[in-house]
Amino acid sequence: MDATLSSGVVRAGRQAREQFHDARGYGDPDGEGVRLAPVEAAHLLYRGDLDAVDGMGFREFLASAACPDLHFLVYKDLRDRGFYLSPTGVDWVEDYGQTDLVVYPRGKGPWDDEIAYRVRVVSERATVPAADLGDVVLAVVDEESEITYLETDRPDVSGATDYGPPGDTPGSLLDDRVLVWDPPADLYERGFYGQPLDRDGETVETLQLSLVEAAYLVRQNALVLATDGDDETAVLDRGRTVEGDRFDRRLRVYSALREAGVVPKTGYKFGADFRTYADVESVSELSHSELLVRVVPDGHGFAPRDLALDVRLAGGVRKRMVFALTAAGIEWLSAERLTP
Amino acid sequence: MDATLSSGVVRAGRQAREQFHDARGYGDPDGEGVRLAPVEAAHLLYRGDLDAVDGMGFREFLASAACPDLHFLVYKDLRDRGFYLSPTGVDWVEDYGQTDLVVYPRGKGPWDDEIAYRVRVVSERATVPAADLGDVVLAVVDEESEITYLETDRPDVSGATDYGPPGDTPGSLLDDRVLVWDPPADLYERGFYGQPLDRDGETVETLQLSLVEAAYLVRQNALVLATDGDDETAVLDRGRTVEGDRFDRRLRVYSALREAGVVPKTGYKFGADFRTYADVESVSELSHSELLVRVVPDGHGFAPRDLALDVRLAGGVRKRMVFALTAAGIEWLSAERLTP
């Protein structure tokens, strides 16, 4: 069976319509015949269902400019997994924005009114703007043509931790941390601020605070540093010296998490900015942290390679990977591995 | 018991020498008395063994410029783990270069002639030149003062894979991969080149090669592409278009691994450049890959955060993390988690 290509649309006759569209969800009815997106035609050529498009067999058609080869690889993979799906970019498929393939639930097709996934196809070397993500599935094709699916979402991040630190605890600003001698009993145990340097039985004798914790507590009037000038200025300056602009972004996200009842602690060991605990009653009865948070600057573009690394690492420690997009406000973006 | 500080050395009397040096490995004999590095003095103050150094108690001494607080944290941690150790930077401890703390085997001390670890102390925000690593243990102190130990080494990377591809297999250069139609039977199965697009039973009908695989095979005269000009130029140009300079670095490392009998495949899913197989007999009897390889440019500096992430991820999948330092030649640098 043969077909023709014109203006980016492949057309075939009545028999093709019956066999490809009606029976298997390819393309769209076109009078008595059927219209096909180039990727659909490539798949039919690949399967041997179509013999040629304008005289081109599968090899010639795939190597031609008409058919984007990454899209073909993902289309084929999803067909192999038992889905019917439609490429966008043709006028009979709705353009949802940032979507290359509209995937229907298993057992459904383009004639139903239901969508399982909206898929965007990217090479592992592409850069994907953070702003584009949140309601698409990324299909990342690596250099050896293997495909990883990453589902993105815009989650709500909030918790139930309820602790207010007491006022005016004294501390000392060292190189890049703050030491609190004889801290209030609950500052660590209930508030999960800092890390004990040493303890006498149950009692924390010296508490080490990170600069971001210290800056937040100074702003809450909960910490007083014996600096020569303004304490807030001193700790912010120190933070910017060791981390640059990143310190301000991290402090904004740290504060937003604390205000939302979530306790952030360093995520260093996981390569993230923070790991978070949604509901801290006391540190001695702490459950596992739920989220890994990475703070990204306004206008950030993700390298799929880095995204995959973060998601894999978070999955390996049973946490959810969340990105804090810092623009005017803070937006949360999650990503996790999907097996369609 | 009191001590005095002068020119970066703390001095105390005979009783201190007996109690601190002779019994517990602090400092160095100094006539009848003992000389101590500031970090050692801080630890003795912290324990209450010393009362004051020039009138300063532990808090004042740690907050003073005399004592680097990161070094103190690591010193204390290693003492807590049961080691005797000596800070460098004083004239009675050999300067090994890139070393802040010389750690003796458990049960041994500065009077023995044996070293367990040479430790370099870094903040998680520091940048560590790749060239400095290879025979030190990095003690990375995170912002909440937790310490991660990373052992670095210069391993030999070689394998026993023995396969030479046949000459002049034809292929087609697509956007960022190469397709080989009807490839030689062993190219995939024995050589582990490419990824099958489809197979007919045991037979691979179409093989997809990455650009780096294709460039290597073209240089071996094993692959012929139907390009208009020189095949090698065409595939290198394509690689540089999608990856920039990184493509040349990766190709150099890919080639070095192949020449050493090691099979590199993409490490994308692990956030690395390659995963490697030291001994491929056939793909159907493949064992797990052993190394994750990340290619770094000449003069690269590591962020300890990224290093920890790589090492953690490699550990999670039971592989060894190896960095390929690309300067005049290629040097291999490994890093793994250490629990002293």
From TrEMBL, chains A, B:
Domain tRNA intron endonuclease catalytic residue range list: 247-326
GO-annotated cellular components: cytoplasm
InterPro entries named among the record's database cross-references: tRNA_endonuc-like_dom_sf, tRNA_intron_Endo_cat-like_sf, tRNA_intron_Endonuc_cat-like, tRNA_intron_Endonuc_N, tRNA_intron_Endonuc_N_sf, tRNA_splic, tRNA_splic_arch_long
GO molecular function: nucleic acid binding; tRNA-intron lyase activity
EC number, UniProt record: 4.6.1.16
Catalytic machinery residues: 277, 288, 319
Keywords: Lyase, tRNA processing
Catalysed reactions, semicolon-separated: pretRNA = a 3'-half-tRNA molecule with a 5'-OH end + a 5'-half-tRNA molecule with a 2',3'-cyclic phosphate end + an intron with a 2',3'-cyclic phosphate and a 5'-hydroxyl terminus
GO biological process: tRNA splicing, via endonucleolytic cleavage and ligation
Function field: Endonuclease that removes tRNA introns. Cleaves pre-tRNA at the 5'- and 3'-splice sites to release the intron. The products are an intron and two tRNA half-molecules bearing 2',3' cyclic phosphate and 5'-OH termini. Recognizes a pseudosymmetric substrate in which 2 bulged loops of 3 bases are separated by a stem of 4 bp.
Family membership: Belongs to the tRNA-intron endonuclease family. Archaeal long subfamily.
Protein known as: tRNA-splicing endonuclease
Organism the protein comes from: Halorientalis pallida
